Amino acid sequence: MALIAAIDQGTTSTRVCITRTDGKVVAQSQFEHTQYMPQKGWVEHDPMEIWRNTRRALSEALADEDISEQDIDALGLTNQRETAVIWEKATGKPIYNAIVWQDTRTNHDGDAAKYLRKTGLLHNSYPAAPKWAWILDNVPNARQRAENGELLAGTIDTWLIWNLTGGAKDLDRALHLTDVTNASRTLLMDLQTLQWDMQLCDELRIPPQILPEIRPSVGNFGKIRPRGPLAGVPITGVLGDQQAALFGQGGIRENDAKMTYGTGLFMLLNSGATPKFSENGLLTTVAYQIQGQPPVYAQEGSVAVGGSLIQWLRDQLGILSTAAESETLASQVEDSGGVVIVPAFSGLFAPRWRPDARGVIVGLTRFVDRRHIARAALEATCLQAREVVGAMGGEPKALKVDGGMTTNDLLMQMQADILGLTVERPANTETTVMGAASAAGMGISLIDEPLTLGPATTWESEMAGPERDRLVAAWEDAVSRCLDLA
């Protein structure tokens, strides 16, 4: 049976999965990378570490199941989206660490909605372009070198494609490419033309010659370099991580929606062949494009802090020994004891878009212990998700969910309760990497539609309306206190 490899380069780790065309995963490997936080609000990654981990994960996945590279028919790639890299064309060395999508150093003080109708994004710290501009402005001689054609820029998909297809050691083979979903997260691509907008490049001070070529998500991204793992395998699918999750959930029809619970929380709603713009703080983005076909668009609600709140309790506060312990502790108490956490570590994203907001914990008493803190953290996740679902408008019959946090059954029940909706989790919750594999398989006509994820587990709401209203009111009060600190 044909095999498809997929790289999922995420905010905290790089994973490789090898899957059959029936959706069964036959091999996988994963490596975490270091999070650098040199100043308050700054978040960085080492692009070279990410590239090393990608090669290691590819090699290990093949070796563990004794799979030959000749057995792999195609490679797909998905990635953390707005994270920005600039590197030297001649050496392949980054001139600065990758600035991560969560980073707030580039917040814009002017009209945030200035480019919303053209790009679907707000001009704030989230998109990639302001991060590229910061690097060019703060690394000595970088802007002049960019103008001279010595530097290349990209999001993580572009960085990996360039290295996978040749890199500095084989510049004749190396391809400087991105796909429409990642390009739509930069603040530089026109949603209608699917091309870089020269006026935006000029206004945001990005030399267009350093930008990659934009291609459809499902199509041709070259072949992997002769040396290293998967030599000669074609790269035929590339999607930003949240679009990959929607694709992996089979969200290829208008009004299909999903919520991903990862480092952050991300809801995407397939809005069809025409970009639709929200009045409720949502972004507009490209969901995917198949080569030779028009693009499909989506509305998106993004929350900066989801699973990273659990990591914070574990790594910075030492309240948890493992992420899984959050479920164990939270299940030991009936409620949070009045504690509410607003995790505005990077400000508040959708639907409020307040980069100046700061996190708060309110309602502490001597009665409270780490069990209540753990439960409050799970409630914060559910309440943030509720705001995004509400901003989408209407009321879906059910919410399809995926991502690492959805293995927490208590969280899923709490989410059903706080939304008052059915929550559906597929058997395979790794929809991001499966979306990349699906795109790659469709890119070489191995499959006609996204891979199957197996039967869903469902949760129904068990919470009475007054209790839900009480939780929401406490959340709104805590958010107002959070904004008072701004």
UniProtKB/TrEMBL annotation:
Residues 4-248 form the Carbohydrate kinase FGGY N-terminal domain. Pfam families: FGGY_C, FGGY_N. Residues 258-442 form the Carbohydrate kinase FGGY C-terminal domain. One of its GO terms (biological process) is glycerol catabolic process. CDD domains: ASKHA_NBD_FGGY_GK. GO terms for molecular function: ATP binding; glycerol kinase activity. Keywords: ATP-binding, Glycerol metabolism, Kinase, Nucleotide-binding, Transferase. NCBIfam families: glycerol_kin (TIGR01311), PRK00047.1 (NF000756). Belongs to the FGGY kinase family. This is ATP:glycerol 3-phosphotransferase. The gene is glpK.
